[in-house]
Amino acid sequence: MEGANGGGDGDGGDRPWQSYHTVYTTAKAGMEGVDKEKVQKVVYEMSKGSKYFQNEERKEAFINQKVQNLRIQCAKLTEADLVHYRKVADRRIVELEASRDLSRIWLHVDMDAFYAAVETLSNPTLQGKPMAVGSMSMISTANYEARKFGVRAAMPGFIARKLCPELIFVPIDFKKYTYYSDLTRKVFRIYDPNFIAGSLDEAYLDITEVCKERNVNSEEVCSDINKPNGQYILPNDRMAVMTFVSSLPIRKIGGIGKVTEHILKGVFEINTCEQMLEKSSYLYAILSQPTAEFFCSVGLGLGQKDSPQVRFRKSISNERTFSATEDEVLLHKKLVELAEMLSVDMQKEGLCGRTLTLKLKTASFEVRTRAVTLQKYISSSEDILKHAKKLLKAELPISVRLIGLRVSQFNGDKCSAAPDPTQKTITNFITSGDVNRNCSSFPDVADLDFVSDAETNLSIDNRQTSQLDWRDPFVGNYLSDGDHQSCIVQKNGVEEVQTPSNDATSSHHSGFTEGSTSFQGQFEGINVMNESKLREGARLNSCCQETTMLWLNDYKCSLCGIELPPSFVEERLEHSDFHLAEKLQKEESRIHQPYVPSRSRNQKDGITRQSKSKKQKLSNKEGKYTPIDSFFVKK
DNA sequence: CTCACTGCA
DNA sequence: TCCGTGCAGTGAG
């Protein structure tokens, strides 16, 4: 093997900025015309010399060293070794191929700049202006106008501002995004009650049955569900998949990030998925078996194996960044706060765990974790604090900028909700909710059954809430939105569709020596196949039912008057989908009470949380998926 | 088990 | 002035 040429590896000579690898130079939607060189230069100039930067350099040097080591290992492989590993790899590839399953049709939905889109919706004056959701220290997402300047998610705000001085910053408001996300999920649930929610703005739907029911193929569905922009159809035949995958840059694959890409390129000269297969003997020779296997399945365009199913959380944690300090009193105070927050979160979900991990980030950005595993399961803030203090004390003369606490090793039976069959749907609802839930600062679906005492204490007076129903997703700034009627259908940029993919592969892979990842996302577009998802005749029926409700004289839409003869089956379905979405949204806003401008409302968070929980409870009372039909009862 | 580290949204 | 948070997961020791 020669000439590593790790793709853009700078030499650090006269163009030092080229050697500073950041995550935000990767091509993203809306960043096609960006002058990458210029952006990189600005980022470099803004970062250079900082503690953060120095730490990045340290890490990068370490990785480079690893690349060197692996290259040496490769070079040491004998001819016999290579013959052997060729066989090993080929055999596995055949097995993997045999496991390919093209029978399911998956729809992957990914909303464009979701947070930014929502913010624009509630403040239309943002329309057309470069805007980012986030703060000076971190940006969560940027709209397309901002992306033209190279501004993007995960970039610190002060750098973004340098790139785009007129950039408008909007503080992050999860409540708002959760609200809109829930709207979209109601629609997803119609098509696949068991859809997998990746995050607030992302979902995977198994639409195999819908297609069958409506007697359409994925292509038709795609254009059916989404008129305009951005869908991509990957046919479920092997050749199409292989072609798609072959030229795909490895970085597009879920689970392959900056470091893995660097190693794959630097050590194996792998740049595309196709090359994973070509180099598979080296992969098996040098890397762990699961890791090699993962890469091979990527090369074959196979998805992950196990259906994401009802996966219980394995840990719960919180962490906060602050200006670095070594003041022990201050650090202790932070620890107390974290312990209390964590305890509240745990009780909300009925969790008890026996491993406590303390995380510290030093003033120089070095991360350190320290853990204890106890005999007994804990969840109270006192217990957490007691052990956390010990862990911290052991590190003590130290200057830190972040403290975090994590509890894991849960008590399976008693604390975590038992999989009671009657609760199954709701459990699904919760778990499919967010794999990664965010800040504890806003309520999430998991609250509904566990409104704890602690939570009650937060609200000022929960009696009045039951009357008033102050739920309003937009506690935020900005105008209201008489307009949020129209958002959903057009806003959710359904992006793409479909495909096969299979089982095979052990769903995990690893990162080389240390790192790894989760391989949940796969490619954007290639998807998971999972065995049987239960069928939902009921769901489809409800669709059809309400369709007939809508058509006066079997001809005219009772809601908007549009005329569509019975023979226009697909058009009708689509039309009713439209009204469904619209209706859901109206319903939602109605329940959520008329919008009250924020200045006139003085309720505290606790109240909002209360009522939100209540609402969730109501709408799920039946234990079925959302009572879709109820939305079609004319009021 | 512990710890460092990757990756993802 | 200035680079986050919460989760899953791997693998070496």
From TrEMBL:
What the entry lists under Gene3D superfamilies is as follows:
1.10.150.810, 3.30.70.270, 3.40.1170.60, DNA polymerase, Y-family, little finger domain
Molecular function terms in GO for this entry? Answer: damaged DNA binding; DNA-directed DNA polymerase activity; zinc ion binding
**Keyword set includes Ribonucleoprotein:** no
- EC top class named in words: transferase
What cofactor is needed?
Mg(2+)
Boundaries of every UBZ3-type domain copy: 550-587
Is Metal-binding one of the keywords UniProt gives this record?
Answer: yes
| Region called Disordered, residue ranges | 586-635
Top-level lineage group: Eukaryota
The principal location of this protein is: nucleus
**GO cellular component assignments:** nucleus
Question: Can you say where in the cell this protein is located?
Answer: Nucleus
GO aspect biological process, one term: DNA replication
Which E.C. number(s) belong to this protein? 2.7.7.7
Looking up InterPro entries in the UniProt record yields: DNA/RNA_pol_sf, DNA_pol_Y-fam_lit_finger_sf, DNA_pol_Y-fam_little_finger, DNA_polymerase-Y, DNApol_IV, Rev_trsase/Diguanyl_cyclase, UBZ3, UmuC
Its recorded reaction(s) are: DNA(n) + a 2'-deoxyribonucleoside 5'-triphosphate = DNA(n+1) + diphosphate
Domain UmuC, chain residue ranges per copy:
106-217, 220-257
The alphabetized UniProt keywords are:
DNA damage, DNA repair, DNA replication, DNA-binding, DNA-directed DNA polymerase, Magnesium, Metal-binding, Mutator protein, Nucleotidyltransferase, Nucleus, Transferase, Zinc, Zinc-finger
Q: Which family does it belong to?
A: Belongs to the DNA polymerase type-Y family.
| Protein name, per record | DNA polymerase kappa
